[in-house]
Design goal:
The chain has 8 helices and 7 strands, in the order αααααβαββαββαββ. The protein is an alpha+beta fold and about 350 residues long. It folds into 2 domains: about 1-185, no CATH class; about 190-330, Heat Shock Protein 90. The strands form 2 sheets. It has a 5-stranded mixed sheet with strand order 2-4-5-7-6. Strands 1-3 form a two-stranded antiparallel sheet. A hairpin with a 5-residue loop joins strand 6 and strand 7. It is elongated and about 90 Å long. The two termini are about 45 Å apart.
């Protein structure tokens, strides 16, 4: 899900690396009579690698110098940067060279991977946006075919169904690229989750055409503070998942309730359920459980969106069989009424 901000914060990388070097130095002094010099040298390289990953080349270079100085303090005489033996001086020079090279190599690799990831996200957004226009044309054409006399309604319905399915896939790809941004910006506003679910249920008539939809939406629910478009994507994805795995003609149940300052959304189906050993894998992108409950990216996007809203999503057994997906979101704090 959201990518970790690697190589983008030199100050954080420098501070992390410096702290690591000092901790390792203190530990080396404490066990100076029981540790091997080569082991200590290897340990001092670790903060340099951390600085390279978190802060890039400059942070790695600075921490390499600090690690070298700290390393010199644990070489007898302990606590002094002085070196009395040629071997010690050579060892420190070699260590500094190795630390700088390792830091540069790691930072370079991180930069390459970050650029590849940025290019992939850019391509994903571009392709997804470009697909929306022909999809809209296909759906409009399918509707026109269905209205014309003498046409085959089953064929038109098939075109419309597959176009909507592809549209949901494109929407998921757009959501994925948005959630993978370094700092995804949420358009936060008060959202009535019950009203959102009701709206989705009415607009996704084709999606639920083969499965009776049972809604149990509690009235007077607290608002949640969230991104309306992204929370709508969560509901659509969970509904799509329940319809696909519940089976033709079997009901899909959606409920909203309040529990302990949380608003709870539950989507249940009468399908085969999700075995306990698969309940982590199904929320990972492009992973599927061993029992055939394929997820693609839909459930992974659900988890990323819900967690971005400080909520949780989980799956358990539905009463009587099947699966129940539960989303918990913190209720928005009510604004104070009146004033002093």
């Amino acid at each position: 899900m959201p990518a970790l901000p690697v190589g983008t914060n030199p100050r954080a990388g420098f501070l992390l690396g410096t702290a690591g070097a000092l901790v390792i130095g203190a530990a080396a002094v404490a066990v100076t009579n029981h540790s091997h010099r080569a082991v200590e040298a290897l340990l001092f390289v670790v903060p340099v690698v951390v600085a390279a990953i978190a802060g890039g080349r400059r942070a790695a270079l600075a921490v390499a110098v600090i690690a070298t100085i700290t390393f010199s303090l644990v070489i007898p005489p302990i606590g002094s940067p002085q070196v009395h033996l040629v071997d010690d001086a050579i060892a420190l020079a070699v260590f500094l060279t190795v630390a700088v090279l390792v830091g540069a190599l790691v930072a370079g690799r991180v930069e390459v991977l970050t650029e590849i990831d940025n290019q992939r996200s850019l391509m994903l957004r571009s392709v997804s946006h470009d697909l929306r226009t022909p999809l809209a044309s296909i759906r409009a054409a399918a509707s026109e075919i269905a209205l014309r006399s003498g046409s085959t309604p089953e064929l038109a319905d098939l075109i419309a169904d597959e176009a909507e399915r592809l549209d949901r896939l494109v929407a998921n790809l757009l959501s994925l690229s948005r959630m993978e941004a370094r700092s995804p910006r949420l358009d936060l506003q008060p959202v009535d989750l019950a009203e959102l679910v009701d709206s989705v249920a009415h607009r996704q008539r084709r999606l639920v055409a083969t499965s009776p939809l049972e809604l149990a939406l509690a009235e007077g629910l607290s608002m949640v503070r969230g991104d309306h478009a992204l929370l709508e994507r969560v509901v659509v994805n969970l509904l799509d998942n329940a319809v696909r795995h519940g089976g033709t003609g079997k009901p899909v149940r959606i409920s909203t309730t309040s529990e302990d300052r949380e608003v709870v959304l539950e989507v249940s189906d009468d399908g085969p359920g999700v075995p306990v050993e698969d309940r982590r894998a199904i929320f990972e992108a492009f992973r599927h459980g061993d029992h055939g409950r394929s997820t693609g990216i839909g459930l992974a996007i659900c988890r990323a969106i819900v967690e971005a809203h400080a909520g949780t999503v989980s799956v358990g057994d539905a009463p009587g069989g099947g699966a129940t997906f539960t989303v918990r979101l913190p209720a928005a704090r009510p604004h104070p009424v009146g004033g002093g």
